[in-house]
Description:
By secondary structure, this protein is mainly beta. The protein has one helix at about 20-25; strands at about 30-35, 40, 60, 65-75, 90-95, 105-110, 120-130, 135-140. It folds into two domains: about 15-60, no CATH class; about 65-144. The chain has one helix and eight strands, in the order H-E-E-E-E-E-E-E-E. The chain has a five-stranded antiparallel sheet with strand order 6-5-4-7-8, with helices on one face. The protein has a three-stranded antiparallel sheet with strand order 2-1-3, covered by helices on one side.
Amino acid sequence: METTSIPKPVPVPDVQSAGFWEAAANHVLAIQRCDQCGFLSHPPVDICRQCLSPDRSFHYEPVSGRATVKTWTVVRDAFLAGFAGDVPYVLAEAELEEHEGLRLVLFLVDGNESEMGVGMPVEVVFDDVGDGVSVPHFRPAVTR
């Protein structure tokens, strides 16, 4: 019997997230910032959660990609077939150093569950998954 590899899903940008994915393709982590009040939002939104500006005016601002793990889990069952070869893997929610409360949930690479802990410093790395498409992940921070 022939085994076929099922690819991982590739991001499909929409109006709100296009700036995030454009930056990621260039290995830059960029977060949506409201032009009215300066609030950082992730995931991207259509109306600012802070000032509720009807202007819908945002830009994407590069951030350091350095963060601190707030919680994490080990995924032992691939809910999407494209991730079957990765199990078990760690998903971590980490707070970006630029803004208290701004958190991202990303795949942890170059680490394992025995190293995980709340407060662990992580940094962004990028996985080139296709032509002009990169997905941000976390890895344990080398230095801070």
